[in-house]
What we know:
Elements: H1 3-26, H2 37-45, H3 55-109, H4 113-133, H5 146-149, E1 172-177, E2 191-194, E3 197-200, E4 207-212, E5 218-223, H6 228-245, E6 248-251, H7 253-262, H8 275-278, E7 287-292, H9 294-302, E8 311-315, H10 330-339, E9 342-347, E10 350-355, E11 369-371, E12 374-378, E13 386-392, E14 395-408, H11 416-419, E15 431-439, E16 447-450, E17 455-458, E18 467-471, E19 474-479, E20 484-489, E21 494-497, H12 502-514
Parallel strand pairs: 5-6, 5-7, 7-8
Antiparallel strand pairs: 1-4, 2-3, 4-9, 9-21, 10-11, 10-20, 12-14, 12-18, 13-14, 13-17, 14-15, 15-16, 17-20, 18-19
Helix pairs in contact: 3-4
Amino acid sequence: MSGDEAALKACDQRTNLSVAASYQAENGFVAAVGPTESERAAYAFLPRTPTDSTDTHLVEFAEAMRTVAKALRQVAEGKAAAQAEAAEWKCKYELEKAVNTHKHHSVIKGCSNCVKDKLEHLASKLTLETASADQTGCCGNHGICSRQILQDQCPEPNRKLDDTIVGKKAPFRLSWGCNEDKNGQHKHDFVSFEKGDITTAERSNKQILLKWESPPQTVLFVTKPNSNAVHALCSEMVRWLKEHHNMNIFVEPRVSNELLTEDSYFNFIQTWDNDQEMKTLHTKVDLIVNLGGDGTVLWAASLFRGPVPPVVAFSLGSLGFMTPFSSEKYRECLDNVLKRPFTITLRSRLQCHVIRDAAKDEIETEEPIIVLNEVTIDRGMSSYLTYLECYCDSSFVTCVQGDGLIISTTSGSTAYSLAAGGSMVHPQVPGILFTPICPHSLSFRPLILPEYVTLRVQVPLNSRGQAWASFDGKGRIQLGPGDALICSVSPWPVPTACLMDSTTDFLRSIHEGLHWNLRKSQAPRD
């Protein structure tokens, strides 16, 4: 007898027993146990069921019951999962509430060492739980995360990415580190309140380390044009990376044509055909190799309106403030970058919008203009002084009357701003430089403003002439009376690899590039 036949026979037996029990109740026999709910349902079902029902009906009935049981089980599992998630969020809320409550009492009344330890334990527990619940958020370690600084733009649900070119990007992690300490350990900065006195903790030398979580796969080459030496070095490096590291290679369309014309060996290189493909480069490229000078770095940064991959810049230009690596040792440098953690400098950029007087509520450009060095507003061909009104957030700053104004990043402090009398600033200092060009006032000195402000430079309606704005030395735009330029710090910095560390590289660049404070030594005493 098969399993199905046995099940059907058992079902018939249970039905017969239910019918017999009902018959005894109707004829006055006293049953030991009253009819159950299932028996009543079966008895109610019998008058509608023909006595000559076949096994086919029972099989269909059994299948229907299995389907109902499966649906009920899925509903129960979904309910349990929802209850577990609600309990998890409730736990996080209670932990965060407890931390905030204890912090409030510590500010008002002060707290003992045991309470501080408890708060640190609660805060660390909350951070770890949040990180484990959301893997796309901050890692919770060392106070910095790659997805906070260099996160990729999330594609829309209906967006189609070009997956035929390269594979998935290599993930990486950023951490704080000290000099000669690349394990990411450091002391966190915090402000403490002890008996009404405000003190800050001892700071470490915060260098930012980048560590690949999986080997990078795709490299983009950005090269200086019209240079035979750069072209020869580029072809040599492309060969070496392909043969020794099996990397996917991207180059600019101009370089692609040059390499394919030179040798059919380079048929594996990839490029882009239009601006739309260029906008998705950050989703494909893990690393940028820059061959040229500081101008080539500016060009490489301009290719990325959003997130920028790490840049390894080899010095093949004139000064080299942002190109610390020597091309003669490119194998050693690239091996270190591809296989080991390395220090980076996060160079902030400015995003700019032009607003016309004729449409004060509309921005002329849909996408912001991004600059790495500076925005310059000058008088152009006009013989009149530039007349500009400047505002910082909602506060009036000053009226500029002179040849123009420079709004610079700290990376651009050694460029045009320096020539106009501005200060040299470490590139990782968070700030915006406000430097006048030949002002018609001896008291007009340069300023350094915090990075979180928004600057608005406007040409007054009663201005005698017009002004011109240029962005990293190109893309000049005319500003007429009533027009305004809005500048703020972009959320997407340019991460450049360091030869030593951020501070050492900066000091080396001003010593070697500008010969800073170089003079003959004073004669010794006789």
